[in-house]
Amino acid sequence: MEFKSVLLDEKAIKRTLTRVAHEIIEKNKGIENIVLIGIKRRGVPLAERIADLIEQIEGKKVLVSSVDITLYRDDLTSINEQPVLNNADLGIDVKDKKIILVDDVLYTGRTARAAIDAIIANGRPQMIQLAVLVDRGHRELPIRADYVGKNIPTSGKEMISVELLEIDGEDSVSIFEL
Fold it and tell me: Is 169 a domain residue?
């Protein structure tokens, strides 16, 4: 793998998430019944950051949860023969809520679809929206994000790497050539 470029640094990620937080508030006409659900792994700290930004803007907290979609992936044979669902119970009631799924990179759409399946298995939300830090294209399913931090068109020979302070010790989005 050959490093090509840093696309977003710490300040750019903060600005991007601030914009996404404002867009979420505007599109939903406030924050009533909103729940942010981060897709493990890097979607969780992103959801928590967005929730903190929304609280700074609106003065109220929004619920944050997480989903581990291992059991729901449709490409499990390439991941693990015996998938394990780590949190079938999301720890929140999704019924009649506006769910905003949060992930770091939107690529084929399979992870988002699997997360939607996991949420619906827990109840029927009013709606499900998708927020991503990076949309790199190459969809295999008819999935699109409602909130996109940055569109980064890539080739099939490129990879987007998101590093977050909470997991990796630094904030950055980089592109690599495979």
Answer: no
With residue 35 as reference, give the H or E element that holds it. Answer: strand 34-39
Give 51-91 pLDDT, tens digit per residue. 999 999 999 999 999 998 875 555 544 444 443 445 556 78
24-50: per-residue pLDDT in tens?
Answer: 999 999 999 999 999 999 999 999 999
Q: For residues 102 and 38, is the Cβ–Cβ distance under 8 A?
A: yes
Cα→Cα distances 39→36, 52, 55, 68, Å = 10, 17, 21, 6
Q: Residue 137's CB: how many other CB atoms inside 10 A?
A: 13
Q: SS3 of 69, please?
A: coil
Per the CB < 8 A criterion, the answer to whether 103 and 119 are in contact is: no
Nearest Cα to Cα of residue 132 among 59, 23, 2:
23
Q: What is the CATH number of the domain that holds 99?
A: 3.40.50.2020
Provide the whole-model pTM.
Answer: 0.90
Q: Which domain holds residue 52?
A: 15-156
Domain count, the chain: 1
- Tell me, yes or no, whether 143 lies in a domain: yes
Q: Is residue 172 part of a domain?
A: no
The closest alpha carbon to 69, from 79, 59, 58, belongs to: 79
